[in-house]
Amino acid sequence: MCLAIPAQIETMNEHDRATVVLDGSRTNVVLTLVPEAKIGDWVLVHAGYAITVLDEADALATYDLLRQMDAAATSEAG
Amino acid sequence: MTTGCTDICEKIHASALRLARDMGGVQIMEVCGTHTMAIARGGLRTILQPADIRLVSGPGCPVCVTDQSYIDRAVGLARNRPDIIVATYGDMVRVPGRQGSLSEARAVGARVEVVYSIQQALDLARQHADHEVVFLGVGFETTAPGTALAVRDARQEGLRNFSVLTAHKWVLPAMNALLAGGDVKIDAFLCPGHVSVILGYGAYDQIVRDYGRPCVVAGFDPQQVLLGVLEILDELSAGEPRAMTVYPSVSREGNARAREVLDEVFEIVDAPWRALGVIPASGMALRDEWAEFDAERRFDLPAEESYEMPGCRCGDVICGRLHPSECPLFARRCTVRDPVGPCMVSSEGACAAAFKYEMPARKR
């Protein structure tokens, strides 16, 4: 339940909202907990809320791991 | 297993051989459902067992630690009040209570909606002005700030049909309770990654100071868990326990803004945990200023009693006293398809992890 995934901020909207992108898909997140975040930053998203700003290299490493885990899960399912 | 993991494993084995002699093996408790899954999926118990390192799951799965009295309250609300829509994260819906699960309540007409964010629960309240929407606030420090912010949003917007039934918890009091109880051998804690994003790894200094146990934060994949184990062994070998992180997303200070939001909306209260009983100062309840959003007060909910499902050993599993396979119901009466207790229901429960990844496929 505490899983969080990295995503990159594409646009900043009203009321602390932002659109983030991960692997081509877009979703809305709330930025209230990360007032320092700006367009282009990577954030860690948990249940619709960004909980921290990530260093880009760390974000990309995490993103690679998630892809590997996803691939492993897919091959297990198959 | 990647090359990185092989290297880490070699170092772990070298370090552990010395410790096995000095300490009679090392038992490490993780307090994070995501770690539970990574350990089972990566087969890490098998890899570490020859080095006499045992990994045990603690009270880190939010659904698993939620007391039965809460489940019964939630199911009661869903069943008895046709004007209520219960909004919940997915793992809660199949946990059985005295009147069955939320999923069974839904089958007989109750409105139970699964959401992935509390923002969707707010949307439900906006769309259904003629219904009351009750969000089940279950989860640790990672999840609770979202609940606090949603309550603030509801007030700002004048949303009068939204409330929260809160069972949010602080993880540190449970770690302390287990150490104080003393009946489970815990040589070190592998601390949760995303809870620690909020708390900061400095929060674990207290455990290091009071109990002399290493507290190492790790991320959510097997390589991170192994790195955390290696760091723990190094600290034990050097006799210098400390709080630190191998997960780069976690700072010493954590997210102070998130903790301010928690403090604004929640007060710290004594709270019931499955198997651990009432732990002082371990729960989050809405402050009096936010009482109108507190489902417990709004609907004057009756007190329900704590109990365990008959035969279910989830309580011993989440305290690290029992590996899931040692429960008499495991893989017989209790399976992922037809679970008895929450540790088999939750996708990150210790029993579900053991069932999916640590059993021969033919027995599943």
Notes on the structure:
The complex is a heterodimer of chains A (78) and B (364). Chain A has 78 residues and is of the alpha+beta class. Chain A is built from one helix and five strands, in the order βββββα. In chain A, a hairpin with a 2-residue loop joins β4 and β5. By secondary structure, chain B is an alpha/beta fold. Chain B is 43% helix and 16% strand. Chain B has a five-stranded parallel β-sheet. A four-stranded parallel β-sheet of chain B has the order 4-3-5-6, with helices on both faces. In chain B, α1 packs parallel to α12, α2 packs parallel to α17 and α8 crosses α13. In chain B, 56% of the residues are buried. Chains A and B meet through β5 and α1 of A and α2, α7, α8, α10 and α13 of B.
CATH architectural designation of chain A: Roll
Distance, first to last CA of chain A: 25 Å
Percent range of helical residues of chain B: 40-55%
Sheet/helix structural class of chain A: alpha+beta
CATH names the topology of chain A as SH3 type barrels
Strand tally of chain B? 11
Topology-level CATH name of the largest domain in chain B: Rossmann fold
The secondary-structure element order of chain A is EEEEEH
Text of the CATH class of chain A: Mainly Beta
- Most extensive interface: A-B, 25 and 40 residues
The helix/strand series of chain B, from N terminus to C terminus, equals: HEHHEHHEHEHEHEHEHHEHEHEEHHHH
How is the main sheet of chain A built? 5 strands, antiparallel
The total beta strand count of chain A reads 5
| CATH architectural name of the largest domain in chain B | 3-Layer(aba) Sandwich
Full CATH superfamily name of the largest domain in chain B: HypD, alpha/beta domain 2
Low-confidence segments of chain A: none
CATH class of the largest domain in chain B: Alpha Beta
Whole-number average pLDDT of chain B? Answer: 93
